[in-house]
Amino acid sequence: MKKLSKVQLKQQAAVLEAVTALEQQALEALPGTVQCWFSMEYEAFPGSLIVRLQFSSQLYLDAAQPQLLLWQKKLSALLLKKGVVLKDMRKHLVFTLSGPDD
């Protein structure tokens, strides 16, 4: 894997801070939340950013699904504070049962 540039490291740090803040909010507000994680391609950032909020069971996932838009807005606001503008916030956050290793 090639080494990340200074700009890419800065992008990664900003996203990590925003995702960590979102995870803390979700752990307090959404029952069944396990963790929050992200993936992205640095060459296509921020369009390639996908943040996943993982739930422990289908029951919790189904209960949280109606709130997805609210959480997408929260992610967008957190990233905006870090200087990252998302064109379409609905493409960047999904609720899932899958973990980062699945």
Give the helices and strands, then pairings.
Layout: H1 6-29, E1 33-39, E2 50-55, H2 58-64, H3 68-81, E3 93-96
Parallel strand pairs: 2-3
Antiparallel strand pairs: 1-2
Summarize the structure.
The protein has 102 residues and is α+β, with helices and mostly antiparallel strands. Helix content is 44%, strand content 17%.
Notes on the protein architecture:
The protein has 102 residues and is an alpha+beta fold. It has helices at 6-29, 58-64, 68-81; strands spanning 33-39, 50-55, 93-96.
Based on secondary structure, the structural category is: alpha+beta
Radius of gyration: 14 Å
Strand content: 15-25%
Number of DSSP strand runs: 3
In this structure, how is the largest beta sheet organized?
3 strands, mixed
> Total helix count?
3
The poorly predicted ranges are none
Mass-distribution shape:
globular
Topology order in helix (H) and strand (E) letters: HEEHHE
The helix content is: 40-55%
Question: Could you give the distance between the termini?
Answer: 21 Å
Mean pLDDT across the residues is 94
